[in-house]
Amino acid sequence: MFSAIMIDKTDDGQAVTLQQLDEGSLPEGDVTIDVAYSTLNYKDGLAITGSSPVVRKFPMVPGIDLVGTVAESSHADWKAGDTVVLNGWGVGEGHWGGLAQKSRLKGDWLVPLPTAFTPAQAMAIGTAGYTAALCVDALVDWGVTPDKGEVLVTGATGGVGSVAVAILKKLGFSVAALTGKTSEADYLKGLGAQTVIDRAEMSAKGKPLQKERWAGVVDTAGSFTLANACAQTRYGGAVAACGLAQGMDLPATVMPFILRGVALLGIDSVMAPKARRLKAWDRLAKDLNPTALDAIGQTIGLGEAIEAAGRFMSGEVKGRYIVDVNA
Question: Is it the case that residue 28 has pLDDT exceeding 90?
């Protein structure tokens, strides 16, 4: 038997409970994992609170991230005792996820835990940090370098933003952090932000072309924030867009793209191919100081995750929730 958070569909919507399950109830897969840690992401918050219909079939174990030890494997890449990380691939939406003590997954979805990180640190990073690394990779691959100017990170106290700030600082960039929590300026400056900006400055409709400010942008907000970020990006710069915290709309014009050659780079972490995932985790291992994770992550037990999801969705949380599924 093992413990798991389970979302069941009901006549009134859904019920979320902590249950004891038999290993025979696990879904199909060629790798069975003894889970050590999971985490709470925005999508997990949506699933657990029922705020959005992200769960595609019921019953469902949420949790789009996990790290653990392989217990059994019929996949050529993995053997018992290997420590592996899972991010995305629709896990926690259409396939049972990581908020459980056991998981059964496809081996093709897994990557090895980098030796630079402990299992708990890997979940302080999680999909949010891995997405941040994908964003930084996209900007660097485009040609954004520290000598070209400041890089803006929106939603900077969140999981993606926090890790992006820390990585960019390590790479030598001057980082501006946009946040609705300006009271957390010390936290952001501790991660490496040089400037902290109130999100109100960029969250309303602005001119289609504005003063050039940013060599690059990591955007988690979408909507007017993304439109203004594009309008403020310097000639030849790039914006890596990975989120929709403000909204899924993009009330912008083509002017930044056709007059300044700005690139809008879409970042998908869920279905990213394995080579891109390995590159992102290599970036994290090289360019994220593990001590920064002490400020980013706070650990809770599996039994606390349901209530914590509500706090997460109400915007009360900075950084990351790490879920010790065995606590």
Answer: yes
Contacts (Cβ under 8 Å, ≥6 apart) of 291: none
Largest CA distance in the chain: 61
- State which fold the 127-266 domain adopts: Rossmann fold (3.40.50)
Instruction: Tell me the CATH number for domain 2-113+293-324.
Output: 3.90.180.10
Note the pLDDT of residue 11.
84
> CA-to-CA distance for 46 and 69, rounded, in angstroms?
27
Tell me what pLDDT residue 318 has: 67
Residue 89, Ramachandran bin (φ over 0: left; ψ between -120 and 50: alpha; else beta): left
246/72 Cα distance (integer angstroms): 42
pLDDT at 81 over 70: yes
What local confidence, expressed as pLDDT, does residue 296 receive?
80
Strand partners, 2: 21
Give residue limits of the domains in the chain: 2-113+293-324, 127-266
